[in-house]
Design goal:
316 residues; 17-stranded mixed β-sheet; 38% strand; globular
Length: 316
């Protein structure tokens, strides 16, 4: 008898243009005691599911995948592990917004605040009756300001190093226009920055790889504070304003005295979508608060045919 086909159930959404693909049924049960250990358990035993969800032929380098788990902390609604075409993410704000909207779509939660356990800490996400979601992210911080690095082909580039759930190098001064027509040039520039950081051994304060590069420019839209371009770890650009990147930006603004609690920062993405951000300070820690919206795009069963040599995706 031929081996039975395997299936998992997924729900797709997008947040400001950036897709999120969540395993909602049929995935493995992760039994480790905390989310950091669950990430390692998933990486060790089920990495083929990461590849199957986000790599071709089913996926693309743009998709962020997520494994939904039971919560690990009392009072939390769910746990989640985020991943992309090249590995795993500590936190993903756009994905958290997508997760909350997905859980509501599945009638698993209602309006109000929900705790979401991630490998870098528990975040609080509020689903509003308008459909928007506000995420109080993990504490964020700038660890180095105005760091200069020689980037071959471009000269010295200066930026801040900051944590917003992932490590970022944030560049305010550059010669590029942040428009979709310039995607190739922007990708080449930011990829060169990332390679230069790696070559010089410049890392985050905890030794973490700086795997996100973020450029800023003024927005042409009235009432919007800034426009950005974010290169993600797998060399795809973020279609949303990037929630962890906006968190890193808010931490920098607060450190410079340019954003106080109660102030609003509106961050536009390269495709024109907007996140609304502010900060809260708890015991000296900067808590970024990001508001955005997600929309369900599809539900599907993924079938793993044993006769298909690419059933678990093409390795990136």
């Amino acid at each position: 008898m031929a081996e039975q086909l395997q299936r998992i159930r997924i729900v797709d959404s997008h947040t400001g243009g950036e897709p999120t693909r969540i395993i909602v049924d049929g995935g493995p049960r992760l039994n480790s005691a905390n989310m950091t250990l669950r990430l390692e358990e998933f990486r060790r035993d089920y990495d083929y599911l990461r590849r199957a969800l986000v790599n071709e032929p089913r996926g693309s380098e743009v998709i962020v995948g997520a494994m939904l788990t039971e919560p690990v902390n009392e009072g939390s609604t769910a746990g989640v592990i985020f991943f992309n075409n090249v590995g795993y993410l500590g936190m993903c704000v756009h994905g958290t917004i997508g997760l909350v909207v997905t859980l509501f779509h599945l009638k698993k939660i209602g309006f109000g605040e929900h705790g979401i356990d991630t490998p870098v800490g528990t975040v609080r996400a509020t689903l509003h009756e308008t459909g928007a979601v506000t995420v109080a992210n993990v504490p964020s911080r700038r660890t180095a300001k105005n760091v200069g690095i020689h980037v071959p082909g471009y000269g010295t580039v200066r930026g801040d190093i900051a944590w917003g759930g992932n490590w970022f190098f944030l560049v305010n001064e550059h010669a590029f226009e942040l428009e979709l027509k310039c995607i190739d040039e922007l990708t080449q520039f930011t990829w060169a920055i990332r390679q230069a950081l790696a070559a010089k051994g410049i890392r985050g304060a905890d030794g973490g790889e700086i795997d996100h590069i973020e450029l800023f420019s003024p927005s042409s839209v009235a009432g919007i504070d800034s426009k950005n371009f974010v290169l993600c770890p797998g060399k795809a650009y973020d279609r949303s304003p990037c929630g962890t990147g906006t968190s890193a930006k808010l931490a920098c603004l607060h450190a410079d005295g340019k954003l106080q609690p109660g102030g609003i920062w509106r961050q536009e993405s390269i495709v024109g979508s907007v996140f609304e951000g502010q900060v809260r300070v708890d015991n000296g820690h900067v808590i970024p608060i990001i508001k955005g919206s997600a929309h369900i795009t599809s539900e599907a069963d993924f079938i793993f045919d044993p006769a298909d040599p690419l059933r678990y995706g093409i390795e990136a």
